[in-house]
Amino acid sequence: MGKNVLIIGASGDIGIAIAQQLAKDGYTLLLHYNTNRKMIDQLREGLEESSVLAVLQADLCEDAAVKKFLTELVFPVDGIIFASGLAHFGVFQETPETVMDKMINLHVKAPWMIIKYILPQMVKRQSGTIIFITSIWGEQGASNEVIYSSVKGAQNSFVKALAKEAAPSGISVNGVSPGFIETKMNGHLPETEKEMLISEIPANRAGRPEEIAHAVSFLFDSRSNYIQGEIINVTGGW
Fold first, then answer.
1. Could you tell me if 217 and 224 are in contact, meaning their C-beta atoms sit under 8 angstroms apart?
2. Is residue 86 scored above 90 in pLDDT?
3. Where are the domains of the chain?
């Protein structure tokens, strides 16, 4: 297909599944990670060498690191996926301000800055795909995850608004909203709590990262270009 896709958060379970699926679909990948280089190396071992154009490290919670990251984006970017996952658990009134800043920077400001940098290229080419992996909590909200729910809600709003600006330039902007997915980010939950959650899901199971990747693959297909500003729920009916 000859298109380059930047995956932000490619070392997480969902990011890995997306990278594997898009490589299978014929895209060339630019893989971003923060600290987990080991997972990136393992991911690359399972892909054709020609599938990975670049590996980029950056802590996108830091403004300076975002700016440095942008200078390293030397290849054209035809599509972007924001799959970084950082959650915070605890009651809202006990949340440190440093955590608030980190969550806003990673989930909201860094995507703003990255898209602002890349969008003119897409407008010039009159094509592009932007996808956010958001969360069911961005719409429903969750106690003990107020900050996470807030920033995911901000991503949902950003998707809907930017889609209206970008659609006339042939750029699609959408989100994929996972429910309860078996990932390391949910690994802190005790088995009893997992069982309770699954009992509330009509599909009667947790989702799999590759199911999120399939939704992303669908949105990258040119036949889905008329889908704009949507948040596609992948929740098992939860």
1. no
2. no
3. 4-234
